[in-house]
Amino acid sequence: MSTLRFQALKEASNRKPVHFEEIDRKSSLFGSNVFNEKAMKQYLTSDAFKGVRDAIQHGTKIDRKLADYIAMGMKEWALAKGVTHYTHWFQPLTGTTAEKHDAFFETSYDGSDPVEKFGGAQLVQQEPDASSFPNGGIRNTFEARGYTAWDPTSPAFIYGTTLCIPTVFIAYTGEALDNKIPLLRALSAIDEAATEVCRYFDKNVKKVTATLGWEQEYFLIDKALANSRPDLMMTGRTLLGHTSAKGQQLDDHYFGSIPTRALTYMRDLEQECMLLGIPVKTRHNEVAPNQFELAPIFEETNLAVDHNSLLMDVMQRVAERHDFKVLFHEKPFKGVNGSGKHNNWSLATDTGVNLLSPSKTPMSNLQFLTFFINTIKAVNDNETLLRASIATASNDHRLGANEAPPAIMSVFIGAQLTKVLSELESVTTGKLSPEEKTDLKLNVVGKIPDVLLDNTDRNRTSPFAFTGNKWEFRAVGSNSNCSNAMTTLNAIVAKQLIDFKNEVENLIENKDMKKDDAIFNVLREYIKQSKKILFEGDGYSEAWEKEAAKRGLSNFKTTPEAIKAKVSKQALDLFEQLGIFNHVEAEARYEIELEEYTKKIQIEGRVLGDISRNHVIPTAIRYQNTLIENVKGLKEIFGKEFETLAREQIVLIKEISGHIEGINSKVLAMTNERKKANQLTDAQKMAEAYCNKVKPYFDEIRNHCDKLELLVDDESWTLTKYRELLFMK
Ligand code: ADP
Ligand code: MG
């Protein structure tokens, strides 16, 4: 009966690792499909090259004439590599990446003069069919169309036979319609604010770059098995399925060697990454069975975000060749660990200094402490906004589920730095005596590098942790585009650094303080004001939930609650002040996120309704019929004695009927709630209804289905089981 499942199992168990042409020295491939400095030097005139470099380094504009020259060189480079098409590659507000391919090939109107053409106009600006991308009402309101515009700070690359040009997506009225524009704006805000603060310590600093190193977690499931589960295909997660007897208790996956098929896939993937200039570095098993992680060397944030988006796409395409399906969902399986995307973040100067790395001299350590404490203050003051930046329907399953960071934002800094902060907290108010300053420099600020070395206490339960020379934002979802989190983090720190500078200047000008005294004074106050966000204990514990509530920290468990912070007055002002979003853009994005949430839950509800009625109930009835036949047969042969002989079967028959009734009535009730929710016109209310009225039925329906999975004969169960999805290698 259950052919799809058994066909898939047969297919999956016969698989062999797929051969691919592996090149030994991966470094020789690095960036060979990227229009990087090396390629530009070869294919561009020196003026054109200088133009691109200035645009990258100083944000200068590239005029049309120059764009023509650049396009010409880019085309020659691409044609030499067998490229036929080009596309403006961008990151719309939903989905990962978008592209529309155009051929270089052109002819005259009468079909004569066939030629490959690509000019400045095509490089710089395109108009995709934007009507299908979400815009939160922006285009309707303004009747504006959108266009894509070249982002020279992220190099063009070749994928397959297509030249991909990273672009932003923008409305003709100027509003951002994508993930990249706000990110670029936030990165420029932090550059400006951090550079200003750096100049207290080193006048040579002209630019500060935010760096990002993401760690991508994912599940790798055999393609046939994944395809046999309609819920996985439609929603990215299993909506039902009984936990397998063996899960991750033994930790044998985490510590084991990478299975051969998976390893072959990873090597192929890494080779593709090398060609694309994605500097992948580590690969390993993760906690759950068939779960893995991949991490690169960190890069400038805009490039790192592009690389992560590109990677997610490449991962899926390479998986196709290896008969795998990659699951990026934060929680594809109930009862086993979900996936995240830790965002490691730091700030680097153009003089080569990592601002979040303690060093040997007291002066540069005061600089370190300045950036360190300002980040803590920024998170303290904007914890709800940071929480909002990582809120999605799928990440809701993970946050607060005792495996990932809780939905409560807090900052972990380790015992040693906690001690440093408490010493700084008792710095004298006003001017410091020379003795105090010397003591601080020698014994507190000067000692940081030593103390950090033995700071091995790495609390894995914290959503935002200091890990020696960078911050690690661990609550980002595996399926998310990093830009949301990175835009927010860089924005709140930029705002904080601007405030810091103002306060220090005020003390210098109005209180006649020296620079050092002013900095110590402001930092001392920040430490006092940021107490509530610092937490070193177990983030998974119930005690912390209670404690956090006492401290007044937010604990939003669902997306509709969490993202309200994005349109709070504080957030709107902050984004506007920094030029990241105007109010229209911020409100539009909020609407889009609500709609996306609603759609996700709506689809899950429909799929669950379908599967439970079309797969589970018919299967249960078939099995129940077998039992009924059995009971009838027993009665026929044994007469009255059948009552004893068929007792268990009759119990089972009744139990099955109970669960069938349960499924039917709950699906009906859920459908009614969906209908009611669909009547609502306010996006916030609709999302809330889906969250609080529709979603609660999922677990109830699932419960009945999973019970039936345990009762029904394994041979006739149509849906591929957890043990098969998770343990087939
Ligand atoms: P794990 O969290 O698995 O223990 P690490 O803490 O060593 O691993 O994190 C490694 C990640 O941190 C890598 O992606 C690396 O590129 C990134 N990283 C290291 N230094 C920086 C930095 N200065 N800025 C941003 N990311 C960084
Ligand atoms: Mg990590």
From TrEMBL:
Protein name per UniProt: Glutamine synthetase
Family label: Belongs to the glutamine synthetase family.
Domain called GS catalytic: residue spans: 179-616
Organism from which the protein derives: Flavobacterium phragmitis
GO molecular function, one term: glutamine synthetase activity
Database matches in SUPFAM superfamilies: Glutamine synthetase/guanido kinase
GS beta-grasp domain location: 84-174
Family annotation (Gene3D superfamilies): 1.20.120.1560, Glutamine synthetase/guanido kinase, catalytic domain
GO biological process: glutamine biosynthetic process
InterPro entries: Gln-synt_C, Gln_synt_N, Gln_synth/guanido_kin_cat_dom, Gln_synth_cat_dom, Gln_synth_gly_rich_site, GS_Type-3, GSIII_N
